[in-house]
Amino acid sequence: MPRTNLKHLMAFAGIVTLLVTVYNIGKCDIAKNDNNFYREEKLPHLDNDFSGTKGFHPRVAQSYTRGKGTQPIEYEEIECVINGDYTVKGRKDGDEVYMPFSFIQKYFEVYGSIEKSDGYERFSFHHSYQDDFPTEPQPKYSPSGVFMSFDLYSVEDRNRVKCISGIEGVPISTQWDHNGHYYPIQIAQFGLSHYSKHLIQPKSKVKVLEDGERTDLSDWLLPDQKSEIRSKMDDRTFLDNGVVEFKTSLSLKNPGISISTREKKLSTLSMDLNFMNNGSVTVLIQMGDGNLFRIHYVLSDTVMKLEGSRDLYYGLGASKKGTWFHLTRLLLVDYQKGLNLQFSKTRSARMKNSARIVAICVRGHGMMDNVTLSAHAHMDLFFDAANYLVRHQNSLGGWPVMVPRKLIPEVMELDSGWYSAMGQGQAISLLVRAYVVSKDQKYIEAAGKALNVFDIPSSRGGITSKYLNTYDWYEEYPTTPSSFVLNGFMYSLIGLYDLKEMATGKISEKAEEIFDKGMRTLKAMLLMFDTGTGTFYDLRHITAGLAPNRARWDYHKVHINQVLLLSEVDSDPLFSSTAERWKAYMKGKLSPHN
User: Fewest beta carbons less than 10 Å away: which of 257, 287, 404, 418?
Assistant: First the structure.
């Protein structure tokens, strides 16, 4: 036993000696090859002794970067006195002072955010929030082409759109009136955006639910033995076309004659309908929690109504009974607008994203054809807007705004029934494109009639004012005193250009005359809107003696794009040079001072 223990003891001593030797060799190698200061027993930058200091003890913070050859960042807190009025906390590093970006952002109206890419965090700083312009050459503007950048617009999703009317097929605006009204500018923009998207976006995928040409209608589920559905030839003798006739209970408690589907992406419903009685169409939407939400499209003049929490009604108009009409609905937009009646807009948007369409149902006695679900139906919505403008143009040729507008309370106010040069101009641009596509004279005639409002001075209820009794200005808001809103004026010029280019005869001649007067004015007044750092929205500081109204960056970008467009149709270097300078403002380059 003692000899055995001695052997064990000697073996243990040998192992310990070996380990110590290996450790020392490794220690020497590390000390020789690694200059990482974190391996030092004492970090010199932490050797701060404040024991003898009296009064304020500066707080010192360090930031470590664990790469070779780096040094710690050391800074002190410092109070920054702002114009002698208040202070914010900053940090001092030698002679450099760092102030919180939250303060800088608000004080200088700049923008920034921390972004991650390639595994690294970076701070992205921007002088403006609209500084992205195309770098590649853009197609030359055409009155039959895309309207500015309206292919990026989604008018129907705007918070100030109450819903898309089932009666008129166009947006109802809550701007300046929470009850809702038909705002001509918004309607024109709705049509122009869908026309532009039609030209830009790929052709939509379409799922045909019913085309009236099949004799097998087994996809349609009947709710009871009394209900009927059959194929028949269209009663309109000039059409060699099959339709589907249906007959079931009118009651909304009845499930109706239905066809199942499960669609999330194909959420635009299109169909041709003719109700013999007060029938309806119901779309079943499965919510994220599995419950069903029902959207009922009924022959009623009530625009929109929510009953309970899951039954939403859109009126299609009582006068549609007994006539064929085409229905196009953005189902998930309709769904979200209904949710807005009971939830916040943020929550409604989340609920919209988790919804899917599960069934289409019809009730009453009627006929249907061309029932489809698609990703979009832009041209249907475009013509809904164009046809609305034709139907509702008044005898003066205008589309009055039927709510009062207080641009500046008690200074610049408009009573209900005012006209807008921007509304007239964008409506003309829409109608010109409807004429180009359809060759239907009613659209170009309506556009020509819209010129009459330009003949009426703003002081007498029209849209044309004069600057210094010399220059004709077409007012977006025809107030007294004049406001001279720049973007609205240039939109009217674009509409006039579209019409003079695509119309013929007297319409073209009159449009050209009004356009030329406006361009003369723009060349004389454009630089009045240059602030040296951006642009003015209007000239209230001149006409009403008020503080200047600076354009937000999104409006400033609109100004640039409008000037660039007009530079394509007028070679005056004023336009191109001004646009480039205004673009530079968005990157922080200011005009020189004295």
Answer: 404
Please report which helix (H) or strand (E) contains residue 285, including its range.
strand 280-286
| pLDDT for position 22 | 38
User: How are strands ordered across the β-sheet holding 60-63?
Assistant: 60-63, 73-82, 86-93, 96-98
For residues 197 and 330, what is the distance between their CA atoms, to the nearest angstrom? 15
Residues with Cβ within 8 Å of residue 466, at least 6 apart in sequence: 472, 473
Residue 264 in tokens: 């999330």
- The residues, ordered by sequence, that sit 6+ positions from 106 with a Cβ below 8 Å of its Cβ are none
Q: What are 328's two structure tokens? A: 């196009």
How far apart CA 203 and CA 189 sit, in angstroms, is 21
- Residue numbers of the chain with a pLDDT score lower than 70: 1-73, 237-239
From residue 97, how far is each of 59, 77, 86, 374 by CA, in Å?
Answer: 15, 9, 17, 58
Secondary structure letter of residue 451 according to DSSP: G
d(CA 89, CA 589): 28
Contact assessment for residue 486 and residue 528, using Cβ atoms and an 8 Å cutoff: no
- At residue 514, the pLDDT reads 98
DSSP state of 551: P
pLDDT for the residue numbered 372: 98
Structural domains of the chain in order of their starting residue, each with its CATH number: 44-108 (no CATH), 173-199+381-585 (no CATH), 203-375 (2.60.120)
Residue 166 · residue 281 · CB < 8 Å? no
Strands 464-467 and 471-474: antiparallel
Quote the pLDDT of residue 50.
36
Ordered alpha helix ranges (H), 373-420: 378-392
